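Suppose you are handed a protein chain with no further information: no name, no annotation, nothing but its sequence. What can you learn? This example shows the usual starting point.
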Amino acid sequence: MKPLIILADGEFPIHSAPLNQLREAGYIVCCDGAADRLIATGIIPDAIVGDMDSLSGNIKDRFASIIHPNSCQETNDLTKAFDFALLQNPEKIVILGATGIREDHSLGNISLLLMYAQKSTTPVEMWTNNGVFYPIWEDKTFSVTKGCNVSLIALDSGVRIKSEGLKYPLDKVIFDSWWKGTLNECEGDEFTLHFIEKGRILVFIAY
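A reasonable first move is to predict its three-dimensional structure. Written in structure tokens, the prediction is:
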């Protein structure tokens, strides 16, 4: 299964993991601000989406046939790209380039990931140059590399989780601050999270 890739205008992929996702994509939706950099690498997106305020005139002319302008000021370009991506009926969506450069943009885009995941049944992940964010709100088992670093960030208060396979058990953690549940480590090649009290969680697994 080749995922649909959304490339945002943050830090461009340089790690082999997100780069491979980009190179092997089945379809690429590019936020307008990232189009110039992507095309400069020799990769042509299937669609360029956004308000086009960051797109150079040369790119606008050369790739007019794949440009899908959206001037709505109530959403950012990443959300516009995500909504467009859903229209392509993808089996999976991987977001790249959504973090780095500006911390406020990074936090905003990361927080949107859970909204995107709940908006559709299509699986969605966010890959950075350091690891992958997975949005979850129900029990899940992750296959990983032994010893990898794992962090959990709760977006809802009152969440309680029982963990299996992590170095530091989460059973007694009260997720009342974002740092709670961060900087953990997987002891084997998988770990499982069981929800005792439901809520929305972002799981970050470092490469």
